[in-house]
Amino acid sequence: MARPLERPGTGCALHGALHSAAAVPGVVPILHATAGCGIQAHRNGAAAGWAASDALGGLAAPASNVFEKQVVFGATSRLREQIKNTVKVIDGQLYVVMSSCATEMIGDDVPAMAKEARDQGMKVLSVASAGFRGSAHDGYALFLKGVLAHPDLLGPAGGREPRLVNLLGIVPRQDAFWEGELAEWSRLLAGIGLRANPVFGPDGGVDGLRDLTRAGMSLVFSPWGGEVAGLLERDAGVPWLETGGLAVGAAATAEVLRALAGRMSLDAPEVERFIAAETHREDHHLHRLAELYYRHDLQRDFALVAGSLQAAGLVRFLVETLGWTPRTVVIADAPPEAARPELRRRLSAATDGFGARVLFSEDEGEIEAAILEQGAEIVLGRAFERAAAAALAVPLVQVAFPVTDRLVLDKGFSGGRGAVTLVEEIARAVLAWEDQA
User: Fold this and answer.
1) Distance between CA 215 and CA 271 in Å, rounded?
2) What class is the 13-153 domain?
């Protein structure tokens, strides 16, 4: 029998589609929904490290704002009016109409309205993104699949660019650190002679959407990018490499870069020189950490709560590089069932021999109970884990969405530089906790 979840840490499909569209410069989302959908999306996005939503990602999103009258008699005429007004008022390269639970349940023909607009010369497409279609992570995939179904609206694609790599599976605003992670992997790929296609964020855009089919490879960081990568392989012949999550630390990052270099036939000595430089930089900063590590007893038993994008990489770095002991590891973003065995395998490889509990759960109550049962000397997780950390009288390091204790603009935890950032955040949390004690 189904049961309600206590504070699941993700929004609905509409939230994910809206935030994804708003994160692509040049794309204008149009909500065909009640006003509450936009407000809830704004609140959901605002939990991503206090940074304001993208310009059109929440309260400012153009919307048909359907009321009871439209729900009873249909809202297509209202949508037609909203599309025309949006195109007049907001300058965009692509307009994406997103349907909601209310408008899909009453049967509004949103694709027909988008086609009508295209017939009048507007670059408009529609995405079926009702909240009941899944989580915000599913909305990310729905948005990308909807765009790929209309390549004619993206401009001439041109020929294949063999050294271009799509970055897939990092969902805007469902990871508070998404912009920093995309920037770090763009830097890492440039270091071995490749060019990233992040699509989202300041380095993305409509051209990035168009170039998805031109890339020489797709790098997939989470289950949420796998379906899109498979579609690109089937329809455009773009192969893909799955990383099993964001690699944290120089050693794990080197494995991804070597695998990618092997698949793309890159110059091995050049790749190894870059990896050596990244490793040297991380070693330098970890050496600087040594005195603080021993003086403040940073050898800790830990509990971790994160999404499928982050969990395996964080656990591996904490265990193999910092020498910490895992007690509880929770995947909290409800990945597809098909993706769970591989995630569990990766987590088991990092936690083998420690007796750690590995759990897939969205339910805050269940997660808190697991943490308290296993115990920990430090908790790394979401803002939701504050109560568990307080009950154990240990520090909390907020590393996963939602993040509410600081501003997040352009940082992340993956790669060698991200690992140094993670160590800084751990030290900050521990020192602040000791000052309060």
Assistant:
1) 20
2) alpha beta
Q: Where are the domains of the chain?
A: 13-153, 161-268, 286-436
Residue 42 to residues 12, 179, 330, 409, Cα–Cα distance (Å): 12, 18, 26, 17
Treating both helix axes as pointing N-terminal to C-terminal, what angle do 110-119 and 76-89 enclose, rounded to 10 degrees?
A: 40
Q: Do 161-268 and 286-436 have matching folds?
A: yes
The span from the CA of 220 to the CA of 228, in Å, is 9
Rounded Cα distance, 362 and 370, in Å: 12
Q: How many CA atoms lie within 13 A of 67 on its CB side?
A: 1
CATH of domain 286-436: 3.40.50.1980
Helices vs. strands in the chain: H and E counts, helices first: 17, 12
Rounded to 5 degrees, what are φ and ψ at 8? -65, 140
Instruction: Return all residues near 36 (Cβ < 8 A) that are at least 6 apart.
Output: none
In angstroms, the CA 165 to CA 180 distance is 17
**Which tokens belong to 353?**
């021999």
**Higher per-residue pLDDT: 173 or 197:** 197
Which CATH class for the 161-268 domain? alpha beta
The token pair at 388 is 């568990």
Structure tokens at 66: 């359907």
* Strands of the sheet with 240-242, listed across from one edge: 195-197, 161-168, 215-220, 240-242
> How many Cα atoms occupy the beta-carbon half-sphere of 323 within 13 Å?
7
Question: Hey, what are 41's tokens?
Answer: 């999306």
Half-sphere exposure of 237 (CA within 13 A, CB side): 5
More confident residue, 60 or 363: 363
Name the nearest CA neighbour of 117 among 85, 143, 155: 85
Query: What is the pTM (predicted TM-score) of this model?
Result: 0.93
Cα 106–Cα 109–Cα 113 angle in degrees, nearest 5? 135
Beta bridge partners, 165, equal 196, 217
pLDDT grade for 1, boundaries at 50, 70 and 90: very low
pLDDT in tens, 311-352: 999 999 999 999 999 999 999 999 999 999 999 999 998 898
CB atoms within 10 A of CB 394: 21
- Token pair, residue 76, equals 């297509």
